[in-house]
From TrEMBL:
It comes from the Eukaryota. Keywords: Ion channel, Ion transport, Ligand-gated ion channel, Membrane, Transmembrane, Transmembrane helix, Transport. It is found in: Endomembrane system. One of its GO terms (biological process) is calcium ion transmembrane transport. Its main location: membrane. Belongs to the P2X receptor family. GO terms for cellular component: endomembrane system; membrane; postsynapse. This is P2RX4. It holds the Pfam family P2X_receptor. It comes from Acanthosepion pharaonis.
Length: 244
């Protein structure tokens, strides 16, 4: 009987009550980048978190801009169709007015005009002009985005017992390091990119982490020093991996 009592109470923790856990995760990105173009205009300037985090909040997700196609001073007027639409012509008869082309950017005016992108003529269109140039360069606009930091805050609550835990240590000044600081919830984006590359998907590294972050939270709410494996106020994530 003593053996059964010890097995049930201690090993299987039969003395415990159980409760469903409630959890919430919030994220915050910080950092600045100097680029040769800004949202305000075609001139050098600073990008801050309000510029590159769009939308400001998402459900269980973040979006950080690392590259952008910026088209300035657009207005509704007439301009040559983009070469990418392949709306080529030889004369006005090839551009029936008030018609459109699948994949085009506007409504034809009825004129065949010179293209600013090619020796071939194209149909003129009513549209927002100048048209966007969708060609991305090999170098991202925000070259210092790898140094932005992502703070992942994880809160858990056991409502039955009124006990809450979080993964934020006091006086948070750390930054995650796979060897020396594995429990810090502040990640350099370049480090997350390295996690993706280490997973054997080098092509995804150029897009940083577009899959996910999975944290494993281990916490103890026990108050009995003999049984508890961690201090009663502890709550620490102990792994980081990119989720595929």
């Amino acid at each position: 009987m003593i053996y059964i009592g010890i097995f049930v109470l201690v090993y299987n923790k039969g003395y415990q009550e159980f409760d469903d856990v409630l959890a919430s995760v919030s994220t915050k990105v910080k950092g600045y980048s100097f680029a040769n173009k800004t949202i305000a205009g075609d001139f050098p300037g600073i990008w801050d978190v309000a510029d590159y985090t769009v939308p400001p909040q998402e459900n269980n997700a973040i979006f950080v801009t690392t590259n952008a196609i910026l088209t300035y001073d657009q207005e509704q007027t007439k301009c040559p169709e983009a070469v990418s639409a392949k709306d080529f012509c030889n004369n006005d008869e090839d551009c029936a007015p008030m018609t459109t082309k699948a994949g085009g950017n506007g409504v034809r005016t009825g004129k065949c005009v010179n293209s600013s992108q090619s020796e071939n003529k194209v149909c003129e269109i009513y549209s927002w002009c100048p048209l966007e140039n969708d060609t991305l360069t090999g170098t991202p606009l925000l070259t210092s985005a790898e140094n932005f930091t992502l703070f992942v805050k994880n809160n858990i609550l056991f409502p039955k017992f009124g006990v809450s835990r979080k993964n934020v240590p006091p006086n948070l000044t750390c930054q995650y390091d796979a060897i020396n600081n594995t429990l810090c919830p502040v990640f350099r984006l370049g480090t997350l990119k390295d996690v993706v590359r280490a997973g054997g998907i080098a092509s995804d590294a150029q897009r940083f982490l577009d899959r996910g972050i999975k944290t494993d939270m281990t916490t103890s709410v026990e108050t009995t020093a003999l049984i508890a494996s961690q201090p009663a106020n502890s709550g620490k994530p102990h792994s980081l991996e990119s989720e595929y």
